[in-house]
Amino acid sequence: MHEESDPEEERQPLLGDGGYVKGGGGRRKQRAAVKFADGKPKPTIEDLQWEVEEAQNIMRSNVEKLVNEREERLENVLGRSEKLHDAAGSFARVSRRARVRIWLRSNKWTICIICTAVVLILCAVVTVIVLKSKGVI
């Protein structure tokens, strides 16, 4: 039932001319169109390796694109955060000034009354000192 065959015959494809040739210091596979029974070409190891390398290159390219996009987005976020930090500092300065102005506006009359009272007290003290030194009091 099962016939023993030569290993050379097992390497021969069923369809097409894909035999081995001698030459160049060794045997190498002849690059002929080897086809399956349905007519599609049978891929060789070199073809498969090329497809794997092509897929690796595509994946590397995709990863590089993603890294570049992420880097651009990160730079954009960093730029916005710096602008926000600057705006926060400016807001703090403006709000401090506004707080002082509002405090002065609301306490203006209190400050005026206190200053007037201090001046009147100083005048009274100076007057008393002068009058005591002249012997009037």
UniProtKB/TrEMBL annotation:
<keyword id="KW-1133">Transmembrane helix</keyword>
<feature type="domain" description="V-SNARE coiled-coil homology">
    <location>
        <begin position="44"/>
        <end position="105"/>
    </location>
</feature>
<keyword id="KW-0175">Coiled coil</keyword>
<keyword id="KW-0472">Membrane</keyword>
<feature type="region of interest" description="Disordered">
    <location>
        <begin position="1"/>
        <end position="32"/>
    </location>
</feature>
<protein>
    <submittedName>
        <fullName>Uncharacterized protein LOC118425281</fullName>
    </submittedName>
</protein>
<feature type="transmembrane region" description="Helical">
    <location>
        <begin position="109"/>
        <end position="131"/>
    </location>
</feature>
<dbReference type="InterPro" id="IPR042855">
    <property type="entry name" value="V_SNARE_CC"/>
</dbReference>
<dbReference type="Pfam" id="PF00957">
    <property type="entry name" value="Synaptobrevin"/>
</dbReference>
<keyword id="KW-0812">Transmembrane</keyword>
<dbReference type="InterPro" id="IPR016444">
    <property type="entry name" value="Synaptobrevin/VAMP"/>
</dbReference>
